[in-house]
């Protein structure tokens, strides 16, 4: 067997190492994580720290810690660490040696060869410095490949398709975007543009500023210790990550500092809307770079067949939103954007070694899951019902996403949550796979916040929760087989299942209403009247089931009335007599309400 070759992503903020196992790239773990922060330090005893330990030390002892050394590669500058000078190659070599050791420990064999990735914009001098770092670390650098090329390899495997793609890489401290051509097994960067000082750190800084302003407003002039500053910075990054999947994040730090001898606790909520306003200029700058890269390749957005998202900060929903809304491109982020480049380096390493290689294995959802909401249409000056996606097609699973919705009316007591499978923004063009009511909401003016959460687990079960934010009151359903392409039979089964759920639910007055859209008949227009009738029929059935569950425990007088009303409803359904149906349902509802209370 050939000597193993490892693939390394030597990043500004984080680094990773991967190899090919059973034809697929696999990231190698150091303790619990496959990510090694690109930090190097020396502790108070003079011992070397690499990765998480060095990053933790950075906030408090920056003079003993080095970060973002990649920015200095090839510059000839020296860096100081604990009073001693080092070349950027030497610091990078420490990171590379750690990655080599992680690989040796995991693979239980010596490792001497590596493929290392570098940014597409790296000059020859910067590439040479990276090669030297590898050699200092005891690694023969068999090939250096561009990071966007590696990302393309992770997605495209053998790269035989003729395609033009875009790789948008937004990391912790750097950003670049590349137009990449793939043809006859050759992957080539056609044009690239970026900013060496743009990334997630800038987003963190904005949140830190926001928190400091808040603290100043509450407590006046501040004088914070390095520890307190470090805690705020860490909490800000955590809030940023939370806001990628949730509409709100709470920053809580107890005993942050003392003011006039009194301990001060930090407890502030940041909404995604506020956060997006803070970072919009950065995302807009990155989109300008997208246009410059396109221009450099003499192409337009419509020539790009795929957009691949790379780098931890590309998980920011605003990035995806800009691609969709401004360029009409839906980006791919199936492969973990933190790990994509290392996985591609491993694919390249495997290819050099003559191994059989294939793309990264990921479980993804083939459908988008959305909920219906009213949206104001500026053209018609009226409200439209639209599907708002929570989990998007091609998201790796498991996945959990939340968004906030608002009540329309003052003192609105209930909200209907509809769950759709499908890609359209028009509810009728998607498949309704579940719906429920959250009831008993507080008396609040219009705009009461309801947070919907969709969680798709690895077994394809969709857990849907709606929570009234101000009280925490919640309602939840589970939808089995959410990823199956539902046909009529499946839909009927799903409907019965959901119907049962509504009837056994005791904590709120679910009315059991839901509509089934038969995919084959999706385009046949049902008249509004027919639709209303079928909705009424479903409501009636649910009410009858509920009455039946109460029958046994009811007094004989009430039992008789229940039986009579159930019969009256069935008759009205048969005769399609809407008025009688309404009256009987109203009466039955009243008895049920009386029996339940
Ligand atoms: P990288 O340099 O590619 O490792 O990316 C690191 C950056 O990604 C850091 O600024 C992280 O805070 C950021 N990051 C990681 N996960 C997320 C997330 N879910 N949403 C937004 N930013 C993230």
Secondary-structure blueprint:
Blueprint: E1 5-10, E2 14-21, E3 24-27, E4 36-37, E5 39-42, E6 48-50, H1 52-58, E7 65-67, E8 79-81, E9 84-86, H2 88-107, E10 113-118, H3 124-136, E11 140-146, H4 147-156, E12 163-170, E13 175-183, E14 186-195, H5 200-219, H6 226-243, E15 248-259, E16 262-271, H7 272-296, E17 306-310, H8 317-327, H9 340-352, E18 369-377, E19 382-391, E20 399-406, E21 415-421, E22 431-438, E23 449-456, E24 462-468, E25 474-479, H10 488-504, H11 528-551, H12 556-574, H13 578-596
Parallel strand pairs: 1-10, 10-11, 12-17
Antiparallel strand pairs: 1-2, 2-3, 2-4, 5-6, 5-7, 8-9, 12-13, 13-14, 15-16, 18-19, 18-21, 20-23, 21-22, 23-24, 24-25
Residues 11-14, 171-172, 199-201, 237, 240-241, 244, 311-313, 315-316, 338 line the site of adenosine monophosphate.
Features of the shown structure:
binds adenosine monophosphate; six-stranded mixed β-sheet; 3 domains; Nucleotidyltransferase, domain 5; four-stranded mixed β-sheet; Substrate Binding Domain Of DNAk, Chain A, domain 1; alpha+beta; single chain; 597 residues
Give structural notes.
This protein has 597 residues and is an alpha+beta fold. The protein has 3 domains: 5-198 and 282-352, ATPase, nucleotide binding domain (Nucleotidyltransferase, domain 5, 2-Layer Sandwich), CATH 3.30.420.40; 369-479, Sandwich (Substrate Binding Domain Of DNAk, Chain A, domain 1); 522-596. Helix content is 36%, strand content 28%. It contains 13 helices and 25 strands. The chain has helices at residues 52-58, 88-107, 124-136, 147-156, 200-219, 226-243, 272-296, 317-327, 340-352, 488-504, 528-551, 556-574, 578-596; strands at 5-10, 14-21, 24-27, 36-37, 39-42, 48-50, 65-67, 79-81, 84-86, 113-118, 140-146, 163-170, 175-183, 186-195, 248-259, 262-271, 306-310, 369-377, 382-391, 399-406, 415-421, 431-438, 449-456, 462-468, 474-479. The strands form 7 sheets. Strands 1, 2, 3, 4, 10 and 11 form a 6-stranded mixed sheet that branches. A 4-stranded mixed sheet has the order 14-13-12-17, with helices on both faces. The protein has a 4-stranded antiparallel sheet with strand order 19-18-21-22. A hairpin with a 2-residue loop joins strand 13 (175-183) and strand 14 (186-195). The relative contact order is 0.08. Mean pLDDT is 88; it is low at 502-527. Residues 11-14, 171-172, 199-201, 237, 240-241, 244, 311-313, 315-316, 338 line the site of adenosine monophosphate.
């Amino acid at each position: 067997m050939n000597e193993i070759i490892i693939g390394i992503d030597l990043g500004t903020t984080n680094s990773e190492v991967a190899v090919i196992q059973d034809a697929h790239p696999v990231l190698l773990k150091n303790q619990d994580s496959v990510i090694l922060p690109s930090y190097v330090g020396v502790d108070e005893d003079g011992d070397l720290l690499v990765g998480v330990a060095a990053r933790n030390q950075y906030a408090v002892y920056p003079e003993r810690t080095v970060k973002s050394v990649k920015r200095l590669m090839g510059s000839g500058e020296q860096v100081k660490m604990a009073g001693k000078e080092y070349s950027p190659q030497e610091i990078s070599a420490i990171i590379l040696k750690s990655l080599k050791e992680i690989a040796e420990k995991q693979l239980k064999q010596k490792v001497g060869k590596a493929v290392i990735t570098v940014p597409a914009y790296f000059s020859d001098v910067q590439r040479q410095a990276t090669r030297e770092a590898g050699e200092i670390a005891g690694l023969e650098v068999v090939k250096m490949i561009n990071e966007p090329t590696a990302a393309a390899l992770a997605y495209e495997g053998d790269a035989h398709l003729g395609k033009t793609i875009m790789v948008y890489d937004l990391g912790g401290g750097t950003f670049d975007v590349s137009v990449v051509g793939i043809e006859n097994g050759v992957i080539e960067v056609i044009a690239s543009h970026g900013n060496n000082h743009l990334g997630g750190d800038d987003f963190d800084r904005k949140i830190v500023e926001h928190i400091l302003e808040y603290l100043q407003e509450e407590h006046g002039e501040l004088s914070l210790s390095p520890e307190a500053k470090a805690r705020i910075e860490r909490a800000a990054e955590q809030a940023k990550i939370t806001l990628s999947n949730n509409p709100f994040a709470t920053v809580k730090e107890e005993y942050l500092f003392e003011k006039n001898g009194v301990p001060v606790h930090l407890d502030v909520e940041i909404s995604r809307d506020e956060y997006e306003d803070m970072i919009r200029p950065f995302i807009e700058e990155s989109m300008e770079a997208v246009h410059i890269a396109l221009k450099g390749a003499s192409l337009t957005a419509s020539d790009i067949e795929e957009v691949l998202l790379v780098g931890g900060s590309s998980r920011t929903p605003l990035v995806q939103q800009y691609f969709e809304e401004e360029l009409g491109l839906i980006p791919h982020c199936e492969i973990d954007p933190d790990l994509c480049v290392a996985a591609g380096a491993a694919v390249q390493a495997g290819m050099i070694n003559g191994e059989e290689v294939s793309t990264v294995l990921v479980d993804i959802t083939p459908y988008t899951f959305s909920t219906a909401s009213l949206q104001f249409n500026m053209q018609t000056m009226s409200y439209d019902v639209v599907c708002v996606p929570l989990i998007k097609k091609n998201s790796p699973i498991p996945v959990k996403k939340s968004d906030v919705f608002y009540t329309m009316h003052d003192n609105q007591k209930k909200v209907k949550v509809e769950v759709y499978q499908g890609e359209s923004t028009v509810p009728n063009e998607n498949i309704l796979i579940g719906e429920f009511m959250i009831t008993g909401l507080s008396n609040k003016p219009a705009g009461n916040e309801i947070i919907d959460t969709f969680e798709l687990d690895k077994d394809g079960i969709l857990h849907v929760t709606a929570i009234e934010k101000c009280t925490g009151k919640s309602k939840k359903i589970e939808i089995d087989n959410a990823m199956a392409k539902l046909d009529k039979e499946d839909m009927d089964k799903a409907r019965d299942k959901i119907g049962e759920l509504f009837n056994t639910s005791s904590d709120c007055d679910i009315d059991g209403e839901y509509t089934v859209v038969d995919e084959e008949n999706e385009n046949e227009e049902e008249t509004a009247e027919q639709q209303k009738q079928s909705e009424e029929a479903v409501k009636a059935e649910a009410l009858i089931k509920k009455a039946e569950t109460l029958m046994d425990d009811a007094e004989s007088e009430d039992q008789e009335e229940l039986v009579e009303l159930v019969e009256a409803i069935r008759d009205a359904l048969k005769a399609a007599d809407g008025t009688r149906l309404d009256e009987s349902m109203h009466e039955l509802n009243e008895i049920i309400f009386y029996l339940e209370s």
